Amino acid sequence: MRKLKPGIILFIILFVLWIILAGTDRDELIIAGVSSLVISLLFASKAKALGNIHLSPKAICCAFMYLFVFLRELVKSTIDVAGRVLSPRLPINPGIVKVHTRLKSPLGRLILANSITLTPGTMTVETQGEYFYIHWIDIQTDDIETTTKAIVSIFEEYLEVIFG
Amino acid sequence: MQLIGAVISLLGAIIIFIGALGAFRMPDVYNRMQTGTKATTLGSMLAFLGVGIAVPGWIGKIVLLVLFIIITNPISSHALARAAHYSGIKLTEKSVRDNLEEDYPDEVDND
Amino acid sequence: MIKYLLIALVLIGMGWLFLPLATEYFTPTQLNNLAANYVYGSAADLNMPNAVTSVVVTYRGLDTLGEVTVLFLATAGVGFFLKRKNSIKSKRRHGSEILKSGADLLAPLIILFGIYIFTHGHLTPGGGFPGGVVLASAFLLLLMAQEHFTFSHSVIQFTESLSGIAYVFIGLAGLLLLGLNHFLDPRWLNLGQWGKLFSAGAVPLIYSFIGLKVGSEMSGMLDSLQSDGGDE
Amino acid sequence: MIILIHGLMLIIIGIWAMLTRKNLIRIIIGFAIVDTGINLVLVAIGYIKGKTAPIINDAVSTAQGAAAGMQAVDKVVDPVPSALVLTAIVIGLAVTALMLAYAIRMHKTGRSLNIDDFEEQKW
Amino acid sequence: MDSITAIIFNTAFYVLMAAMALAFVRFIKGPTSADRVVAFDIMTIAGISVIVFISVIAQRVIYLDVAMVYALLSFLGVIAVARYLEGGL
Amino acid sequence: MIETILTIVLAIISLMAAVYAVLTKKTLNAIIASGIISLLASIMFLLVSAPDVAMTEAAIGSGLTTVVFLYALKHIKDRRSTHDD
After folding, report:
1. pLDDT per position as a tens digit, E44-80
2. Which of C53, C96, D35, F82 could, after both became Cys, cross-link D92 (CB 3.0–4.6 A)?
3. Do C41 and D11 touch (CB under 8 A)?
4. Does the CB of C112 have a partner CB in chain A at under 8 Å?
């Protein structure tokens, strides 16, 4: 079961994707089943990262909370950056800072880094072990801990529940 | 309903325009990337969602479009930022500090 | 100096040649007879919504067979000019962790999308050629993200030759089952119901094989371009 | 109409690149531009103003089978140039790759990318 | 579509065109190759939005497939140039 | 009407990109410019109602063309740096 879990999750994802693309006709379901089965068999060894997902009710609840928090941050920081761009003085204060993260699983780190990158104003430049190097458009402090609190912690508490 | 969708699309288009303007005004590559490739993500999401609201039958494909954009865009901009740093492009003079340069000074090839 | 003058003269002459094409071009308001027949026949005879696919696969099917052969020859030529020596160059910089895990998760998605494109070639835009290129793009993503990405060449060559042979055999099946001048005629399978996936005879089958063939050929070409190791 | 003229101008610019540049890769880029221009010209010739793509779904006709074909003939553009260009694009990529492989090989033997260094291979 | 909606959609279209032109100016000016790739990326995203708007104007749902191909594959070009710049291609 | 304006804007940008690709000094910039030409050509194919062609051009122009040129450039640059002739 432990070994099959990534393959099964991949199969479900691909199947749902095909249904959104093409609808729930009988022919479509046959082809969708066959092709997603073949692909998930081919890629089961590569997609090991998918095995880290916890499927408890609490994790699913956290996923929805995470989505909400992420969208809120996205809108907030986009408005912030738009204000900076439109103001004539161009008030930026950029630089590369170092933060640390507690996440271990590859998928969790991928989603954390992508969330940081997607919110305008912060951008992951490099990952080394437990440190992320982040280009920040408006540096406020010099300290690693406060920087971590400002950028990473919002997302990390939810991701930790989902991916462990 | 169509009116709401059109207004949301207009908002998205304006955000894309602001992103392009930011890429035009900012002083170095990293800041251009900040506005250019990520403010545009929210902009394109809003533009697509506006179309999806205006024409309700298309919502499935619109959702997939948003999903693809949201997965692929950060990976490419991360890769580009890393490449820009390693190929030796300096940060602008306005920058405060550069922890990555301090920690790994040998990795950059300055040619 | 005289060379620049000559080049300018050539370009101006070329523009002068093209000028009547642009000025005397009048926009038609109706399809010509051939195109109207193709559009009508695509819906009436073949039960297939996409008229472009009906032209590519059925009405000009022999042409497409030739194009696939040309594609095969070109990719074989690329493999002939460049030697495969995988082991020499390993001083590539490592891809970042995010790129690697992202590539692992995105590649199955891209492959599924490619399969969607080439199985729905008779209903929506797309078909074997773009679908095959999308498959090759997934391969390319893995090739770029991981510096030690390997795969067995025999699998790709096997897929390629199998789909080529299957394409020809489907054409021959039309010859055998329908009569002498029906090479590549897809109507030996059930024409099915309008707008469903399993309709239009053998067209989805043919386009799937074309897609697999184009995808494996492009993958082989990219691989030989990537790993041209060292000097002789 | 605009697209037709634009395609022709792209062809001329590409030929200009192929004639004046010395670097082999730049010549091949010129070839790729000519390729795109020719495809644009071909597709633009098949276009009929105010008509839509030759794919018969609900937007063109709600009927099925032969009746749909009858209705669609008045509403769609010519499918033949599309079908020709569809294959030509993929072939164009393969041919470009073949030319690049040849350029790499020439650089390997002749140690140069300049077209003038290969005088002895002219005829 | 009534007239106000059409006007708003057309305005969005013009704004997108302006964004594309602005990104192209950055492409011409950009001092390094990375700047040019950023401009290319912006043009791609604006192009995807333009394709979606074209499909609204033409009232064809099938045009969205083209936009999907672009949304899924456009990052390959950027990654290729990035890997070339950092010497890892 | 709006389609005509869009076509004119795209044509102007595309021609400028082509001229830039001819005149620029660095080959890498010319490759990125050819990517832009391909993107705009794909939108134009859609404007003349040929979605199949537009999709093929999108699939090819977004990744493969750029990558093929970059591989060639990489081989040539590698060999030049190791032998230094």
Report:
1. 888 888 888 888 888 888 888 888 888 888 888 888 8
2. D35
3. no
4. yes
